[in-house]
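Internal QA ticket QA-208
Title: Verify multi-chain structure generation after dependency bump
Assignee: T.L.

Test input:
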Amino acid sequence: MTDRMTNRITIRRPDDWHVHLRDGAMLSAVIGHTAAQFGRAIIMPNLVPPVVTTADALAYRARIQEALPAGSDFTPLMTLYMTNGTNADDVVRGFEEGIIAGVKLYPQHATTNSNFGVSQMETIHPVLAAMERAGVPLLMHGEVTDPAVDIFDREAVFVEGVLDPLAKRFPGLKITLEHVTSAEGVGYVESARAGIGATITPHHLMFNRNAIFQGGIRPHYYCLPIAKREHHRQALRRAATSGNPRFFLGTDTAPHTRSAKEAACGCAGLFVAPVALPTYAQVFEEEGALDRFEAFASLNGARHYGLAPNAGTVTLVKQPRFVAEDVAVVGGEAVHVYRGGEEVGWTIEP
Ligand code: NCD
Ligand code: ZN
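Actual output:
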């Protein structure tokens, strides 16, 4: 039963199509939270320095596997970070050998660790053509970086000025608009050509931009793309719960230490992994759409990436659970958990 009054819901084991696992002590501190909930995850390549070659991806994958808690059943799906110098042969070979699942495009300076990003789209046209031929997905951080464009408009301007021309120039290229946050982005994906999908984060479904300024400046609500006005959040909730297969789960869990966020120039990114699945379940329940939760969490993304859904299931029960405020990182630092210090209404059955 998955109607509005349901207190328990069983779905296929879900996947997270957008995760920042970081490296070193931070990787060890956060990975268990993702591995406990998801069968697979697309691992973002924005390390310092970034994951740019198949060899880098193989090495990073080995570090992730090393850091996994014993007994985890979790497959990291690796991505490469597109640069002006990305080698098309390496990309295609890495994809065909099953080492990478896609390539991530960050417009230069768009977000955390994106200074290696692409400055001129024309530079990468040969790589995109090779990806189109070989069926390699392109994952896009969908914001322009022109400082003259208002931060709340950067996604809409990107969709019209960068994504749409690129989708037309490479009509067979599989594209994911990562962490869509605006009504314009949702509208574009809904009416786009085949092969274009979008991930939606739990936090963009939960709060609008007011949260960032509630009684003062709140660094733990600051992420990129930045949360927007309420009508955009409503568009995201409609899209996520609509059953439209183009929209799927991608948490954009992006841990930073407290000291990196609670600063005069705080980092963008929310650590949402510990509450990810329960938060999505809450949104689907609030929208009366629990019957569509499995498609969003466990089926649509796999189909977009050309993979079979996971075997196995996960059961969530409507049972409040207190969320710890912080996760400790070896070395003494702590990461604030999104919704930490609150009760969350759904719990994953062990
Ligand atoms: C991400 C990070 O910290 O790596 N930050 C964020 O606000 N989401 C980068 C990103 O996905 O934009
Ligand atoms: Zn991200």
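Spot checks passed. The mean pLDDT is 96.
Status: verified.
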